Structures are given as structure tokens and as C-alpha cells.
Amino acid sequence: MFAIAPANERPLLSREQERLVVGKAAWVFAMARSGQRVCPTICITREAWEAVKSAKPGSPLHTNWVAALFKLVPKGEEPPQLVVRTAAQTHMAGLARVRGKVDAPKRESDAADTSKPLGRAIDRAFESYLHGTPVWTIDTGRDLSLEQIVLVQAATEQKPFSILTRSTSTGELGPFKLQGQPELPQLANPVAAKQLCRKMDALSGAHMVCLVAEDKGELVFLSARPVQANISANLEAAIDRVSNGDWTPRKAVSEIDPAQLPQILHPRLTGKKRGTPLSNGLGVSPGAASGAIVFSSEDASRYRARGKDCILVSVETGPSDIEGMQAAAGILTARGGITSHAAVIARVTGKPCVAGVRTMSIDPDHTKVRLGEREFLAGAEITIDGGTGEVYAGALPLSQPKIGGALGTLLDWADGSRTIEVRTNVETEESARIALSFGAEGIGLARSEHMFFSTERMVALRRMIFSQNDRDRKQALDGLVEYQADDYARLFSTMEGLPITVRLFDPPLHEFLPRSEEELEDAAASLGLETERLRNRLERMAEVNPMLGHRGCRLAISHPEILDMQIRALIAGARAAIDAHDIQVNLEIMVPFVSSAREVNWVRTKILQLMERLGVNQTESFKFSIGTMIELPRAALRAYDIAKHVDFFSFGTNDLTQTTFGISRDDAPAFLATYQRRGLYDADPFVTIDKKGVGELIKIAIQRGKEANPDLKIGICGEHAGDPESLRFFAGLNVDYVSCSPYRLPIARLALAQSQN
Length: 757
Hints:
alpha/beta; Glucose Oxidase, domain 1; TIM Barrel; Pyrv/PenolPyrv_kinase-like_dom; nucleotide-binding; Phosphohistidine_dom_sf; Pyruvate, phosphate dikinase
């Protein structure tokens, strides 16, 4: 029992007493110590109160309690009425409300009498700690509940009122009124209120609600508690605290939560009157969007051409849907999870996406969709929230993102303490420009197959796949080289010498083949084949599990012409960019889905032979290297052998997680929530890296790879590279860069800076 704000002097506490002061008590003590006028306040622990209650009046313990109460009385004045408050480390439901206007004890013997007003109020305050979720627990044999505290304050003559130290929407220094509360009273000395806010802000480094009372033109501080603010306000406040000298730039970087940044990088739903969601799925790409329901890429493109927003609704998306996904304002799928095709493409393009909506069913014949209990025809408007996974009827109001100077300033500070590069996963010139605006330091993953997803290119690719002779195959490949060369030239020109990692053709060929009967007929017509003949060819190419089948480097080995086409396109694109813009090209060719050193060595040898045949050498204007994506457990374990044949490793954590767990990332949502609820998994392993399994494989691969090749460059290019928790893990490894989708770049820059401080 001790005074944290005595009436007649500055507080002086021992180290043990300071340890006991938490919650409201901590702010009362801090403000009193700073010289701010504070309502006289004393603190008593449960252990002390139980002892005082059983002590006899006149005993040393009882006398000490009476002496503590007199610390509340200003010199020459009568004992005031008292106020009793709880003070917990964290907010806790069920704590007793403040008990005010309690009469001070008339006699010393009444000071701890629980039948009297003060003793009864203190008893009730301590009793309330036993309700709700306990904050104090038994720990290492020490009963921490004995350290719970109650505050006793002198009551103020004027009615207290609350002020916000900073605006929770703009971050501007207060005083401001609380939302939904009456206007602040007319202050006799508004400068004093500003000074109090400034002082509390410097002490707390947070948005606070202060309880104060005015006395003769002065503000008397009673209590304070932190309050939540939006990310924009937190950013502005952080910059202001650095300007005022309260924080260093490094401190500002460490105090902003990277997970909050998507709130200002994407549109959000505004207002609270949203109604009940039609359905709930997984929010796999942040932001919100409203628009008309469409069921095909062609319809999405038509809506965009007319300047109207639409939501592409599908059971699941595939490579042939990319044009429609880019045209739509948002994507809604019945299947899939955080690393599904729809989710990955949505994050690259910055579109909101809700996946895995199990209560959604599509009737393509009648162009309608059932969402929960309601049916909607094509053209009906809906709203999706890619953060929460909710789907609403109608077009709800949205707020547009505002990226102000505060975020740029903070990220510049973050870059000053970050040593790991942050690259991006993009394939198009438009996405690359967005990524550069967000601070990308290169491209860590350009998926070459994404450059085929237009109608013309799809026809050429299918012609190559189904070609019956060398002449047809060469003609189809030449057309694809021209298409890709132009794409690469644009990409190289946009990045102006920054490193670009191009992954060779990765997905199984079935992803580029017609799926529906209508697509089959269209494909047969475009290829000049009979429909039945094409159907037979497709049946012979079918795989039971394509994602573990004929894909990645296996395609390059079994179809060298595809590898030849890609290398020719890369070289042609590089030469075009150098000739047109006199820039440097820094190309990194990545071989995907390897499981052995012999595979990667075969592909590397073929690439170098093609380079030699094309007359390509390392020059100042054109530099190239060859590496591999580590996405199979065997590749991670055989990293020592593989590293001898490559210049870099890039970890594809999406597939590495899938193959390590034996879980299909698209089917996982059906049971992962149950696993997490029952404590079997701490988190979704496709969202946050599994440190003990997948993370261990990454550690082993880096260690063995560096042992065989000390100059080996290490990158992370899976979706985990945009997750703050995963980034903290990667920062502890010997990695050179991470690569994520453009809209996650600010998150990665900030999270890595915090991890490396």
C-alpha cells in the first residue's frame, strides 16, 4: 500500500512497487512523476488488503494504511470524498465499475472496516477480479492474484470528463471528444488540455482516453486507458512523435503492426449497417468490391469495356480465367483456399477474393447462383469482403484506399534498417509498375505460363501440344516466341536492370486444355480437328493427380521444344529491351519442381547449349544466372548435390507445404478450421509457415546448399513471403530476398525491418 500520486509531493516508488503498478495505475504514476497535476491516488494490493482487514486498529499495519489514506489529503484541507477503481494489466470483462463519492472514514478504526463505505467498495473491487476471464494465474508456485491492485483516489469537486489524446481517424494531436459522446466542455485553459494530451502521448506512445477534471483553470488527471485507432491515424501519429523527438525512426517502425497495412492498400466496406451476410467463405485476398454477378471471363471483359464493375463467380478458377479475373472487380469461388489459383492471381492483381464458399452452388445452364438461402441471376449485384470472407446482397458503400506520405516515410525508415531484399511476384508490365510504386527491388517470380492466357496464345499453345509433325510444332512455337519476347521486353524495360527471376513452364499441360464440352468444340474448331478426335487425345493425356504428375522440369525434359521456345523468347526480349532503351538486363532463369541434381543439371546443360547456339554471352548489359525452385522435400534434403549445379535457390513455400503435409491446398479448407479449433494445428500452414516441419526443411536446404556452394543466393517466393509471422522466421535464416505479390510489398518491407532491428 503506497501512494502513486501523493497530494503534497512527487511520487517515489521502489522497484518492487513499480512492478506492481499496472493498467490505469501505471498512467497515474507516470503522469504524476512527469509533473502533471494528478488527482491524489494510492494503491493497495489484495495481499495487503487482506492483511489490513484482519489487523487490529492501532497495529503497525493498520497505522500504515491510515497513513497511506492521509496521502490523499492536501495540506491544510479536510479529507475529501473518495473514489475506488480497479486497475488490471489488460482489459477484463466483469471488473467493478468505478465507485465514486465514497465518504472518507470518520475514525481511524473505520479505515479497513468492510461494513463501512470505503472498506465495502474496496472489497467489491477485489471481488470483481474473480469474474470473467482471469488475468492473474497461479504461476511457478506463486499466487499472482495476491498482486491484484485497487486504486483509491480523492474525488474532484468538478464532474470529470473524457478526452481523446489523438484523433482515432486522422492521428492529429487532441484534445478530441469520444465518438458518440457529448461535446467537450468549454475549457477555461485550452492550452492546458493540449499540453496534457502531448504529455500523455509522449509517455504512452498510443492513442489514449484520459479522464480529467478542471480546477481553477488547471486540468487534473484522474485516469487513462488506451483506445484502438485505424492504421492511417497510427501512421500519422508515429511520424508526429518522431518529429516531436518522442520516438526515433526505428521506434516508429517497430510500433506499427504490418498486418494492419492492407486496410489502407485496398477498398473497404464503410458503415456498420451491412445486414446479414448471405454466405461466408475464406478471405484470401484483402479488400472489398461490389458489382454484377458474371460467370465467364467473356462477360467480365464486356462489363469492363462498358465501364461497369462485376464479380466473377466460379466453382474454381484456372489459367483460362485470368483475363476475366483481371477484368472483374473481385472474385468469388466455391472451392479453394489461401493458395488456390484464384487467391494467388487476386493478390497479384490487387483484387479482393473470397474462396471456399461451401454454401454456394452454381447452375450454369440457367446462369444463376445460390448463396446460402437465396438465388441470384447473372447481373444481380453483390458485395464481397476479401478480408473477412463475407458475401452480401446488393452494392454496399466502399471507401477507397488512401496512401499518404506517412506510409512512404515510415517505409523509407524501415528500408534503412532492412538488409533482406523485397521482390515481387508479377508477369505483366502493369503489375510490375504497381510493384515498383510499392518499393519492389526486383521480380522474384515471373510465372512464364501466365503469359499464355489470352485467346490467341491459348490457341497457339494448344496447337503446339497437339501438333502431329515437326513443321506444325515449329510454326506454333515460333508464334509463341514472338508473343513472349514482346512481353519479356516490356518487363525488362520496366524493371530497368533490377533482377528478374523467370520460372520456366511449371503447371501440367492439362491446365491449358479445354474443360467443358463448349470449350472442347471451340478448341477443335480453332485447331482444325474433329471434336471426337480431340476428345480422344485429351483422354490419353489425362492424369489422376496432375499436380504431382507431368509438370515443372519434367515438361522441359520430355518436351525440350517448350524449353527451347522459352529460352529463345527470353533472349529475344532481352535483346529488344537493350536495343530500344539501352538498359541492363539481369535475368535469373529458375527451373521448377526438381527432385534430383540430375534433373536440374540436364535442364541447365540444355539452357547453356541454347544460349551458346543463340550467341549469348555474359556482358555488362546482359547478365544471366540459372537456379532452381525448392518445392519438394527430396529437393530440400538433397540440396547439397543440387546446389553444385545452380546459382540460386528459391523456395516455393506453397508447394513445399503441400508436399510436406500431404495436403491439397485447394481442398484443405474443408478440414483445416476443425484442426485449428481442436488445437491440432496452431495456424493454417498455407498462411503462416510451419516452422517445425516445412521450416526445418528450409533450414536444412539452406545449410546444405551453402556448404556445397558458398555463393548460393537464397530467396523465398511463396505466399508466406507476405505474412508477417512467416517473415519473422525467414529473417532468422540466411536468405537474400523474399518475393511476394505487389500489394503485400509494404507488409514485407515493414515486417522484415522489425525482425532485423
